[in-house]
Amino acid sequence: MRQGSSGRPSSGDRARARAWATVAGSAAIVFLAAVLRAQAPSPPPKAEEPPKVEEPAAGPRTVWDGVYTEEQARRGEGFYRQSCAQCHGEALLGREMATPLTGPVFNSNWSGVMLGDLAERIRLTMPQTSPGSLSRQQNADIVAYILSVGKFPAGKTELARQTEIQNTIRYVATKP
């Protein structure tokens, strides 16, 4: 800096020094704000809304509400023929020790029961030669086939493989 006759910096030098001090101070404030922002905890992520489940308007649904698809029943027919037909018969009418899976006897045994109970019975005890060997999806497909043979209407949504969802559907033998 230049010094005037009194040994002090000139007024122009003092103005430049103040300008540089202002720039340096502003830079320090910006830097400090960035450091503090980086160290601040992030806001918690927004919770996703759970998927909406359609609740039945008047009580549980029934097998008359189209609770399986035709495609699912076709898959179930294949699993049935492979794992069930040797005991329950090709027409699901039962043989010797195996009960029918359609008709008046089946309807009187299962009418009023939740579909999940039927699916769990199949899952835990069938096929007789290898209980529990079928997947939950295969069991749901077999139940869909049983419903199709019983002349219950197909719908647009597959029967779910989860017991909790199946237990929202009541097996009702006669159309309400």
List the defining traits of the structure above.
about 180 residues, mainly alpha, Cytochrome Bc1 Complex, Chain D, domain 2, two-stranded parallel sheet, 2 strands
Report on the architecture of this protein.
This protein has helices at 11-39, 70-83, 85-88, 104-110, 115-125, 136-149, 163-166, and strands at residues 61-62, 169-170. The radius of gyration is 37 Å and the shape is elongated. The chain folds into two domains: 9-47; 61-170, Cytochrome c-like domain (Cytochrome Bc1 Complex, Chain D, domain 2). The protein has seven helices and two strands; from the N terminus they run αβααααααβ. The N and C termini lie far apart (101 Å). Strands 1-2 form a two-stranded parallel sheet. The model is unreliable at 50-57 (pLDDT under 50). 47% of the residues lie in helices and 2% in strands. By secondary structure, the protein is mainly α.
Note the topology.
Elements: H1 11-39, E1 61-62, H2 70-83, H3 85-88, H4 104-110, H5 115-125, H6 136-149, H7 163-166, E2 169-170
Parallel strand pairs: 1-2
What order do the helices and strands follow? HEHHHHHHE
Distance between the termini: 101 Å
Q: Work out the radius of gyration.
A: 37 Å
Give the % helix: 40-55%
Q: What summary fits the major beta sheet?
A: 2 strands, parallel
Shape, per Cα inertia axes? elongated
Task: State the fourth-level CATH superfamily of the largest domain.
Answer: Cytochrome c-like domain
Proportion of beta-strand residues: under 5%
Total count of helical runs of at least 4 residues: 7
Query: Mean of residue pLDDT?
Result: 82
Domains (count): 2
Report the count of strand segments: 2
- Tell me which CATH architecture of the largest domain applies here: Orthogonal Bundle
Strand order of the largest sheet: 1-2
Classification by helices and strands: mainly alpha
What is the CATH class name of the largest domain?
Answer: Mainly Alpha
- Regions with pLDDT < 50 over 5+ consecutive residues? 50-57
Looking at CATH, which topology of the largest domain would you report?
A: Cytochrome Bc1 Complex, Chain D, domain 2
